[in-house]
Amino acid sequence: MEEHQSNESQQSPETKSITRTHVLIAILVLLFSVVIFFFWQNKQLEAERQRQQQEISETYLKLDSVSSELDIRIETIKELGGEIDTLVALKEQLENDKKNLLVSQKNQRTRINQLNERVSGYRELLLIKDQEIEELKVLNTQLVEENTTLKVEKNQLNESINKLQQNTEELESKVAVASRLQIEGLAVYAVNSSGRERLGEFRNRHINNLKIQFTVLDNEIAPIEGKELLLRITAPDGNVLFDVSRGSGSFTFEGRELFYTAKQEILYDKTSQQVTYMYDKGSDYNVGQHKVEVYTDDYMMGTGVFMVK
């Protein structure tokens, strides 16, 4: 029995050493397995993270591409006069989706799938808007053609109106010229103190008064109205016989101020009538030919002469 205990005491340390070694190896193997597992798991998580990041980037690029195309459609439809409120609201929602995709980390997988489905819907909407743009282009082309036609018609109408106005003005001008009064038979008499008259040529001693007489011709076109007839007598030296105390004054003719010797008012009734001026100069006349002119309104009715010897 003592021998058996002696053997057992001799083997016990070795056995214990082997057991400890086996346990240590098992622990090391287990630790190594755990390390390999965590390494593999981290590898998988990193791969998943990179794949998810790639999907996020791709989805963001899709949203950004749709946003750019949406901007083009909004600008085009706006230029064509279409309604853009819905597209503007959709653009705001799309920008919020882009922002939330980058910020929010929760439920990224679900969000990416939802956004990819939205991208498909956005692209379908863009196709619908492309059709709307084509319809608006056709409508705008029709409007441009109609506007062009209207402009041509307007130009033609304006041309006709201008031509009619020009013809009217020409007719009015012709009527105005045709309605002018004319005189004939202008004669100048020297009347002495005893009432004797001398026609055309006379001396100063024979002149107590000048009697200027003429006939205003009939004119059916001229209106019935009062007319102021201005008598202008020009001496041989070119000076107009002028005396304010004897009824002289001034008037405008062809943009110039002229003096007249005497005036007389008549009522013209489209028929011919005789007009007589009696003029007393109050002094001798210059020797030579004197010119007599009769005016009314802004035109000259006729002329005549007389000679003082």
Please write out the topology.
Blueprint: H1 2-79, H2 85-103, H3 108-178, E1 183-191, E2 197-199, E3 201-202, E4 209-216, E5 225-234, E6 249-253, E7 256-260, E8 262-268, E9 273-279, E10 288-296, E11 299-308
Parallel strand pairs: 3-11
Antiparallel strand pairs: 1-2, 1-4, 4-9, 5-8, 5-10, 6-7, 10-11
Keywords:
309 residues; alpha+beta; Immunoglobulin-like; 2 domains; 5-stranded mixed beta sheet; 4-stranded antiparallel beta sheet; 24% strand; rod-shaped
Structure description:
- The protein is α+β, with helices and mostly antiparallel strands and 309 residues long.
- Helices cover 54% and strands 24% of the residues.
- The protein contains three helices and eleven strands.
- It has helices at 2-79, 85-103, 108-178; strands spanning 183-191, 197-199, 201-202, 209-216, 225-234, 249-253, 256-260, 262-268, 273-279, 288-296, 299-308.
- It has a five-stranded mixed sheet, with no helix packed on it. The chain has a four-stranded antiparallel sheet with strand order 2-1-4-9, with no helix packed on it. It has a two-stranded antiparallel sheet with strand order 6-7.
- Strand 6 and strand 7 (256-260) form a beta hairpin.
- It is rod-shaped, with a radius of gyration of 60 Å.
